[in-house]
Amino acid sequence: MSMRLRRLSRAATAGLVAAAALTAAAHSAEAADTLGSAAAGQGRYFGTAVAASHLGEADYTATLDREFSSVTPENEMKWDATEPSRGTFTFTSADRIVDHAQSQGMDVRGHTLVWHSQLPSWVGSLGASDLRTAMKDHINGLMGHYKGEIHSWDVVNEAFQDGGSGARRGSPFQDKLGDGFIEEAFRTARAADPAAKLCYNDYNTDGVNAKSNAVYDMVKDFKSRGVPIDCVGFQSHFNSNSPVPSDYRQNLQRFADLGVDVQITELDIEGSGSAQAADYTKVVEACLAVDRCTGMTVWGVTDKYSWRSGGTPLLFDGTYQEKPAYDAVLSALGGSGDPGDPGEPGEPGDGTASCTATYTRTADWNSGYNGQVTITAGDEPVSAWTVTVTLPAQQSVSSLWNGTPTWSGNVMTVKPSWNGTLAAGASTSFGFTAAKNGSDAAPAVGTCTAS
Fold first, then answer.
1. What residues does 262 pair with on adjacent strands?
2. I need a surface site. Which of 22, 29, 59, 429 has the fewest CB within 10 A?
3. Distances from the Cα of 54 to the Cαs of 94, 241, 307, 346, in angstroms?
4. Alpha-carbon distances of 225 from 178, 180, 250, 345, rounded to whole Å
C-alpha cells in the first residue's frame, strides 16, 4: 500500500474509532474524572511517553487509554529508529503508537527530528554538505510519512550546553553546519508539514538561568525574523538535587510572552508521598497559570518502565496503582476521583462530607470583572470547605468577600469567613473583584474539599 493510501486508510479507521471513543468518553466522564478529561476542562492536554513494546501489556494499555489524551513515542521516532541506513526509513514501531493513539482519539507529539544523541553511525561520518542534505531529507521523510497526523514536533532537541556559558552543544550538526542548523531545521519542517506545531525542546531550562536565557534569546531572534517556531518544550525532570525552581511559572510566562506556546514535555519528579505530590502540584499550577501553556506530558505511564525507575518518579507505581502524586495532579486540574467506586471519599451516603464549586462572572467591564464561586454541599452536612482559584498570570484580585483567602503565586486558596457550615445540599458563595491587566480569560476553580 502506498504512503498516501496507508494514511487515508488509517485516517478512515481512526475516524470511526474516534467517534466511538467520543461516545464512550462522554459516558465515562459522567462516572469519573481522569487526567486527560480534567486537563481538557482547563483547555490543556495531559499526555505520556509511550513505548510500542509495552502496548501488548493489558494494564499498561488500559491505564494509557483511560487517563491520557496525548502520547509521545519514547524512542520510536528518533533517528536511529526511523532511518538506520541513509535513505531507508522504517516506521513499524512508530506506526503502532500512532495507530493506537488515533484509535483512542489521542493527539500525538513527534519526538524528535534533529538531536545529537541516538544517531546512526553513518550520520557522523558525513561532510558538511552531505550532512545538511541528510538532515533535510530526514525531516522530510519522517514528517512526510506522518503529515497531518502529528500535533507538535520536537524539531530540534537539546542543542545548548549545561552550565553557565549558554553556549551551543557540540554535535555533528553544530560542529559541521554551525549555529544556522537550527533555523534550517525549522524552515524545512514548516515546509514539510505546515499544519504541525514546531517546538524547540530542552532540559535544565525550567528556571531562569544561563541555558534558558540562551534558548530565550534564540526564540526571540527567531520570532523577530519570521523563523517558524510555534512552541518551546520544557522537559522538567526534577529530583532533590534539581527541584522545581521557584521561578518556574515566571520562566514559562516570559517565553509565552514572546508569542510561542509552552509545553511541559517530559515531566517526572523523583520521590514519593506528599512531598512528591506537592512538587507535581507546583508544576500543574504553573502551567495552568500561563495561558499559552497548552499541555503537560509525563515521561512514562508506570514507575517500573521509567528511565529513572529507582526514583519512582511517575504517577502510577509498578503495579499501576494511583500514587498520592496522581491525586494531587487530578485535584490541581480540577478533577476528582471516581464517585462510583464503593467507599470512595465523597460518595453519597458514605458519611463523608463533600462539596462542589462552580464559577460564574457576575459583572464585567473593560478593565476588570466580578467573579462568584458557589459552594454546594453533597449528601452530608459540611462544617468547613476549601476551594482553590487559579487566576491567569496577568490578573490580580483587589477585593474578596464572604471568604478568607491565602495566596501562593497566582493561586488563591479560599476558606469560609462566616459561612462554613452547610446542610446537605445547601449552598453558599464568595465573590471577588479582579483586574484584567490585559487578560480576559476566566480563572480556573479547583476541587472543593469539605469536612
1. 232, 293
2. 22
3. 13, 30, 14, 34
4. 18, 13, 25, 54
DSSP for residue 193: -
Q: Which of 74, 76, 184, 266 is labelled catalytic?
A: 266
* Cα distance between the two ends of the chain: 61
| pLDDT tens per residue across span 423-439 | 888 888 888 888 899 89
Query: pTM of this prediction?
Result: 0.72
Q: Which of 443, 421, 431, 157 is nearest to 289 (CA)?
A: 443
Return the C-alpha cell found at 46.
495531559
Q: Say which of 158, 184, 270, 380 is annotated catalytic.
A: 158
Cell numbers placing 144:
512526510
344, pLDDT greater than 50: no
Q: Indicate the helix (H) or strand (E) that contains 359.
A: strand 355-365
The stretch 272-299 carries a mean pLDDT of 97
β-pairing, 385-390 vs 444-445, is antiparallel
Q: Is the dihedral of CA 394, 395, 398, 403 positive or negative?
A: negative
What are the tens digits of pLDDT across the range 303-332? 999 999 999 999 999 999 999 999 999 999
Task: Decide if 158 is catalytic.
Answer: yes
Closest CA to 45 of 317, 284, 322, 316: 284
